[in-house]
Amino acid sequence: MAQVPEAPLTTPLDGRHRALGARMVEFGGWLMPLQYSGILEEHRAVRSRAGLFDLSHMGELFVEGPGAGEALAYALTTNPVGLAVGRAHYSMICLPDGGILDDLIVYRLEAERFMVVANAGNSGAVSDALSERIEGWPCVLDDCSRVTGLVAIQGPLSVSILTPHTDVALGDLRYYSIAAGSVADVPALVARTGYTGEDGFEVFVDAGRSGEVWDALMKAGVGRGLIPVGLGARDTLRLEAGMPLYGNELDRDTTPFEAGLSRVVKLDKPGDFVGRAALEKAAAAGPRKQLVGLELRGRGIARHGYDVFDGEGRIGVVTSGTLSPTLGQAIAMAYVPPARSAAATILAIGVRDQRIPAEVVPLPFYRRPAGAG
Amino acid sequence: MVPQDLRYTKDHEWVRVEGDVATVGITDYAAQQLGDVVFVELPEAGRKVTQFSAVGVVESVKAVSDMFAPIGGEVIGTNPELIAHPELLNSDPFGAGWMLRIRISDAGQVAALLAPSAYEKLTAEG
Predict the structure, then answer these.
(1) For chain A, N or C: smaller number of CB within 10 Å?
(2) Residue A302 belongs to what domain range?
(3) Does B59 contact A323 at a Cβ distance shorter than 8 Å?
(4) How confident is the model at residue A312 (pLDDT cuts 50, 70, 90)?
């Protein structure tokens, strides 16, 4: 019999998305809301008020035991041994050749307990790789992806909407910190992390109770202009904030250095880690390509896969592109040769049969105003 | 119900025929499917277009879609408002969101277009 494709998974909030009129899309093996009221409106809501996201498709992998920190330091490019309890950092899991298997956030929940959050589409591969790599250290991996729900609130009003509904002292929760407590009386991990460039919180709960958290936050926020936000706006928000997307900017043929993420490769940490030899070599040799931000200086929108040109010819490729709702102009990320990656360099993007001028600009395209969380 | 004085294509364009001039746009169904329109690319005046060929592009936040000429002839004008206000395709697709005007070269081609009831049937079937 021919291979029957597996049906996508649904999150516990699926019924609610449909009741809200969401247009659903398949992503990473899950059926997720692409948009509810419209991508532009949802994007603007997050930048000016707040948005509520169902991120239950993400992977949550717990590593626990006296050797958990060291095991993760071997498995990943960062050094979770150095994370204080209650703190988190952005990390990567690389292949032995230095290519990126996934980008992750690692949270230290307790001295001997870490949570690694992986992208939905890579969750299985990351789980498999981690369980192989932690062998030899006293610790165990518990893949709780299928039983963990994740609801995120992002935007300048996040603190004031969430505060009355949680016993976590949000004022004490710094950016890239996590605390255990409850939200809407549901036991939860509350992390001050996100993928939008705004202040906000990611709330991890038992999958079966995500509905209670969603309902409570929707009710709390509706009078303040909180709206549900789908993956369409999640993508335009992260792109404006200069954040990479696995599958676009990051893949197995790319090193963290090329993606502008040298800071997550801690070559000075003690001991070996998977990919160390290849990454040391890559660091010495210099990147083969460089990720840049581009703003189009003519009429047109750059899209994933469009060619980048300079006076000589084709020099690179667009990894992500859109019309930036906040800036009102077309923005893109692309890989170009390092020699053409300096800010203010004028390149061109092939949009159908035209070459649209584009200027290299520093990332991010958008930074939230100082003092806004 | 779609405007009853227009004709339609299976690719969701509408046409108003007045003498030998056709005014063309996309339907509310198309605009709804696209989501927020952020960019419109239209052919220049003077361009000769053949019926059902791709003549323009409508871009939403997430996707790029071709737009097809419902009837053949010469492009005699395009809607200048769509440069600064592509969202007119969402807010008023049958009115202020009109896209181009074509001087019809073969009036017989109108017969290949769908009547409002036929178009409604098409979109009801999804």
Answers:
(1) N
(2) 289-361
(3) yes
(4) confident
Q: Report the chain A residue with the minimal C-alpha distance to residue B37.
A: A40
Within-domain flag for B32: yes
Per-residue pLDDT reduced to its tens digit, A103-152: 999 999 999 999 999 999 999 999 999 999 999 999 999 999 999 999 99
Q: Which two tokens stand for residue A308?
A: 């980048």
Q: What would the two tokens of residue B51 be?
A: 């019926």
Range of the domain at B65: 17-111
Say whether both A85 and A186 belong to one domain. yes
Q: Please list the alpha-helical segments (H only) found in chain A.
A: 14-19, 39-48, 68-75, 123-133, 158-162, 210-222, 231-240, 276-285
Q: Please report residues of B whose CB lies closer than 8 A to that of A34.
A: 62
Task: Say how many CB pairs under 8 Å bridge A and B.
Answer: 37
Candidates A351, A318, A355; CA nearest to B41 is A351
Percent of chain A at pLDDT > 90 equals 96
* Model confidence at A373: pLDDT above 60: no
Chain B CB contacts of A38 below 8 Å = 35-36
Interface of A with B (CB under 8 A): 23, 34-35, 38-41, 232, 235-236, 299-301, 303, 322-323, 325, 352
Q: Is residue A40 part of a domain?
A: yes
Inter-chain touch A38–B36, beta carbons under 8 Å: yes
